[in-house]
Amino acid sequence: MKSNKILQVITALFLIFSTNAYSAEILSQDEALNFAATKGEELLMAFQEPDLNLRFQKLDELFVTYIDVDYVSRFVMGKYWRQMNEEQKQAYQKLFLRYGLAYYKTLPLDYARHVKYEIKNAEVDGNFTNVVTNVKVNLGEEKQVITLVFRLHKVDGKIKAVDVKVAESSLLLAYRGKFYEMIAQDDGEIDWFLEDLGDITASMELNLREKAVNQQKSLEIQN
Known about the structure:
Number of strands: 5
CATH architecture: Roll
CATH topology: Nuclear Transport Factor 2, Chain: A
Strand content: 15-25%
Oligomer: single chain
Helix content: 55-70%
Order of helices and strands: HHHHHHEEEEEHH
Largest sheet: 5 strands, antiparallel
Low-confidence stretches: 15-23
Structural class: alpha+beta
């Protein structure tokens, strides 16, 4: 279903990604609701930018500013993070950011133009604040309402998103499962995993550059 593709876009953008999570501050309900409203509108406006390069630029800025890359990258690696040496950790976190920025661009972003959302409520949960949102998908005869829970916290005075839950399923845990599977296929060798992740990332980046070039050529022909 097309709505499933829209769901992929929304959840991936809030999940893939700077600061130390252990110094996080509790975020009030009012702060969380205001953040979800203003940044959600910015996100949807960015989706509607027709110029592909400009759209990616705007989304990248939202991505790295409002997603806690450090927290997410460590959480996704789980037990393997403790097994990595400092050189591997640094290489992985740089690669993780590249991977995340490339991955979301492979999703069907145009479908997001048919999405509206309604913020329901916010509640403090330990060191985090959860914002419950109804995402409304309207594609002609296909209409659907999807409930998403965005998990936020504040670090050094800045609000960051760290997870999205869909029907109680955490996207963080889903990404952890994906990386664990890759590591298992590499016989637990972190260097091999980093090499594979690097190859996947480089391939996505190359395809995206080609896509941007082709779009530019198409626009030049039309003009």
